Every structure is written in C-alpha cells, then in structure tokens.
Amino acid sequence: MERTVTLVALFAALIAALGLIPQLTLAFGVPITAQSLGIMLCGTVLGSRRGFLAALLFVALVAVGLPLLSGGRGGLGLFTSPTAGFLIGFPIAAFATGYVMERLSTLNVGVAAGIAAVIGGVVVLYVFGIAGLAIVLDKTAPEAALLVKIFIPGDLIKAVLAGLITAALYRARPNSVLSRA
C-alpha cells in the first residue's frame, strides 16, 4: 500500500514536471507539452489501476488550483477551456495504456509499451481531446480532429520514448515495472 501511494504521487509529479517543457500554446488554446509522455509512462510502468490513480491525482491537483499545467495554469476554469477534453481524458488514457500493456504480456516490454502508448496515450486521449475541443470551440468532430493533427508526430515520438524508457527501466529493475508484475 505504501509503495502504491508513493508511486502514484511520484508519477503525478512526473506529469507535472513534463508540463514545464516546452511551453508552446497553439492558436486554438491547446499547448504542446511533454505531459502526455507522463500519461503514457503512468500506464506502461504502473499498470492500469495505479496509472489511472496517478493521472487522477494530477487532475485533482490541477482542479483545486495548483499551477501544474503549462504556463502555470490550474483551477476549475480549465474544465471549460479548449484543453478540458485532454485533461479529463488523462486518467482514462493512463488506464487504457496500462490495460493494453498488461494484456500484451507475451510481447517484448519495449514493443508492448510502444503499442500501449499509441493506443492509450494517443488514440484514447485524442478521443477525449477532440470531443472537448468540439464542445468548447463549437466545432464538429471532424473540424476538431483537424486541429489536433499537428500533435500526431510529436505524440508518436513520445510513444516511442515511452517504449524505450519502459524497456530500459525493465532491464535495470524488472520489479519496478508494475504493469509486468
């Protein structure tokens, strides 16, 4: 139990830290950050349940006003902003990433983590992000999807990084990759 609480808090902090680099906000109000890499790592390293809890803790801390998003943003107002869908989707994306990682237990850890990161950390997260953009910006789903296409190359790179980082961690400390425990 203590280990779980510590890891959940540590990975929530990792997501926050990854929001600091880089800080580039696009014209439609959604910033480019490395936070989705943190979401992917929550799932690939911690697994579905713990990954979900880490991302949920991060979202809760943002909701109570801690300035953990890029540009030092935090507070309930973010849940009506263009980033709302992505923010709401963080815990679900972390869960989905972990769930896929746990199901791909026969594959090489790095390959499984890369696949899981694409499915959970890109596809699932984009479903929420596109829905949020469509609602907040009063656009159709296809129009909102066109807005997020700029994120695809970077997010695919993050998925590869999640695979490489998870594989390296697994080689160095196999018991620390809880999605494989």
UniProtKB/TrEMBL annotation:
Compartmental location: Cell membrane
A single MF term (Gene Ontology): biotin transmembrane transporter activity
Transmembrane segments: 51-69, 76-99, 111-137, 144-170
Superkingdom of the source species: Bacteria
Keyword Transport: yes
InterPro entries per UniProt: BioY
Main localization of the protein described in the UniProt heading: membrane
Pfam short name (any one): BioY
Topology in membrane: Multi-pass membrane protein
Keywords noted in UniProt: Cell membrane, Membrane, Transmembrane, Transmembrane helix, Transport
GO cellular component, one term: plasma membrane
Family listed: Belongs to the BioY family.
Protein name (Swiss-Prot/TrEMBL): Biotin transporter
High-level lineage: Bacteria, Pseudomonadati, Pseudomonadota, Alphaproteobacteria, Rhodobacterales
